[in-house]
DNA sequence: TAGCATTGCATTCCAAGCTATGCAAGTGTT
DNA sequence: AACACTTGCATAGCTTGGAATGCAATGCTA
């Protein structure tokens, strides 16, 4: 059985993700940001005051991963957490002014990474690439969901 | 400035990489393997007795990352490290019988993950997807190399 | 309303990746 | 030969990601 890395989607995706992460990190480090905060920030920039649970529902990330990320973000002055008025278990996440101010430069950095990465592709190829990824992601998420449901029925 | 995650290559690649990693981990955990060992194993299965340096040259991974991975692999009985006869600094990496025996099932697992992930695509779309990734990777590696060279000239 | 199940979050422990640094062994230069 | 430089690897410390677990607050149900 042969395994050719150049023809393995998983291998290439992993490699590509590391290349993107390195690029993004280089560009947002001067802003005092790290890559892991990015997904959470993108959601919060659209509207903060969410609970951790609400954030998780918008990010395909495990709860402990987000909890850790939020802890680092609080330590670094990007967010503050206030107890929910109604539900004493929940904490609502609020952006600091500092985090709000970083929105424009951070997004500019990310968009620049994207455009440089895809610079060798035509407009059509870029669209194709994004569309293919969206379809693969949707399929894999569905598969994962089905597996969870199967386990619940069986177990 | 807008940022739409569905149209961000970096965001989608990161997400996709996590989905692939979860799938692969589920499948190779029963074999006693973890995802991080995979790239090194793929090289070593083609021929072991390499030094760490030679492995790094075949993997776009930083040296400390590989050193850690090899330490875990040695701990788990996948490889042994023997001092090089000529160069006392270098250590040559040898697969154990156990690691050799895992080749077929591990590769089968990875190929299954790939084919399930791409199941919703036509043959042509799969080829396109892989080809696009290869081109983007090549471009980003070239960019990264150029930056290093620029820094050396300047600094 | 008492007891049980669920929910929201934190904590622990691990893998995997990175940067920065250290150090011993080899190489090259004068 | 002495010195500086380079190379090969290890270590420390961090982020990002996950699984497993714990626990308090809430919700449900008999």
Automatic annotation (TrEMBL), chains A, B:
UniProt GO MF annotations: DNA binding; DNA-binding transcription factor activity
Keyword terms: DNA-binding, Transcription, Transcription regulation
Keyword Cell membrane listed: no
HTH marR-type domain ranges (all copies): 6-138
Domain of life of the source: Bacteria
Gene3D superfamilies: Winged helix-like DNA-binding domain superfamily/Winged helix DNA-binding domain
UniProt keyword annotation of Transcription regulation present: yes
One Pfam entry name: MarR_2
UniProt protein name: DNA-binding MarR family transcriptional regulator
């Amino acid at each position: 059985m042969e395994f050719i890395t150049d023809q393995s989607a998983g291998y290439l995706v992993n490699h590509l993700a590391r290349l993107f992460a390195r690029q993004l990190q280089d560009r947002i480090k001067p802003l005092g940001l790290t890559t892991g905060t990015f997904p959470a920030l993108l959601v919060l920039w659209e509207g903060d005051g969410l609970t951790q649970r609400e954030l998780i529902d918008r990010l395909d990330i495990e709860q402990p991963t987000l909890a850790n990320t939020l802890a680092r973000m609080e330590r670094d002055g990007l967010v503050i957490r206030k107890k929910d008025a109604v539900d004493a278990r929940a904490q609502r996440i609020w952006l600091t002014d500092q985090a709000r101010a970083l929105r424009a430069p951070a997004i500019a950095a990310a968009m620049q990474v994207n455009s440089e990465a895809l610079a060798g592709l035509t407009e059509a190829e870029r669209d194709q690439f994004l569309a293919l990824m969206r379809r693969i992601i949707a399929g894999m998420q569905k598969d994962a969901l089905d597996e969870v449901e199967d386990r619940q029925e069986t177990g």
